[in-house]
Write a structure and sequence with these properties.
Dna Ligase, domain 1; alpha+beta; globular; 13 strands; Rossmann fold; D-amino Acid Aminotransferase, Chain A, domain 1; five-stranded antiparallel sheet; single chain
Length: 294
């Protein structure tokens, strides 16, 4: 059986190449030839669906792991009949924090209070702040968290202490989709990552950063294996079902009232969680896909 592992041709580095190789090796053990293909290789084919179909047929490709966030390419490949893991919809929703919140809110997933900032244009900016006080009240006041809707590894996530700082931050981010979110100070700088494959939580770690409200390892956090509590598992499973996700990472915050979903990553890097749990998510992802392909 032949399949593609579609990656971003501009992202190189050990942390990316390692997980790509783990996926290829896991597939090989199951007699699947998983062939890495950079998303840039499809550039000249995007306007020609017949050429894409010919490429799929020529390589005898049955399915693809789409380890990228190029939603337009993912949609094009699906339109040409190729089954993707994860789907274009899952990637799009998980890569936009506002869409993630909206999708999960419909399923009653507990999350911090969240407001989507009104859309503006980069060359126009925010010409009025009349809406700002109502938005701050909706997320329980200051301090509050500002998040660009697109971003990974904790980048472009900020804690602001007052209205003046919020205006400065939003002015600098004008033109980007941005959400404001309630700051959960309970056990700040600590969160849980639960790795999901299908509807199954396969491993988990707890991350701590005593120097930052963000617990990300990239930002200096530490990690250790963690056994989630029942309500934390229920939250992660509920999120995976709501998004119809084949695999990904569910990040959970602690609060006085129980666990709250922070965000969901459709292409969650799993080397860190392997290092502290010994669970190779690549094997489980390939098994999950082959189970669906039967």
């Amino acid at each position: 059986m032949n399949a593609w592992l579609i990656t971003n041709g501009f992202l190189r580095g050990e942390k990316f190449d390692t997980i790509y190789q783990w996926l290829v090796d896991a597939a090989k053990k199951r007699d699947v030839d998983l062939r890495p293909v950079a998303h840039t290789e499809f550039l000249h084919l995007l306007t020609d669906h017949e050429s894409i179909k010919e490429k799929i047929a020529a390589d005898d490709i049955r399915w693809a792991i789409f380890w990228d966030k190029d939603v337009m390419l993912a949609r094009t490949l699906e339109a040409c009949g190729l089954r993707l893991y994860n789907s274009a919809r899952v990637i799009e929703v998980c890569d936009h924090k506002g869409l993630t919140h909206s999708a999960l809110q419909e399923y009653g997933v507990p999350m911090p209070a969240t407001v989507m900032c009104p859309m503006t244009f980069g060359n126009v900016g925010y010409t009025s702040w009349d809406w700002l006080d109502a938005a701050a009240r909706a997320v329980r006041g200051y301090p509050l968290v500002v998040k660009a809707c697109h971003g990974s590894f904790g980048a472009q996530v900020f804690l602001v202490k007052d209205r003046e700082e919020l205006i400065q931050r939003l002015t600098a981010m004008a033109g980007q989709p941005v959400i404001l979110q309630q700051y959960i100070s309970y056990r700040k700088g600590i969160d849980i990552r639960i790795q999901m494959v299908g509807r199954e939580p396969v491993c988990a770690m707890i991350r701590r950063n005593p120097h930052d409200f963000r617990a990300n390892i990239t930002g200096g956090g530490t990690m250790e294996a963690y056994r989630p509590l029942a309500d934390e598992l229920v939250l992660a499973i509920k999120a995976a079902i709501a998004l119809d996700m084949d695999f990904g990472g569910v990040d959970i915050l602690f609060s006085k009232d129980g666990p709250l979903l922070c965000e969901v990553n459709s292409n969650a890097h799993f080397k860190n969680i392997y290092d502290c749990t010994g669970v190779n998510t690549a094997d489980l992802i390939i098994d999950h896909i082959l189970g669906k392909e039967q």
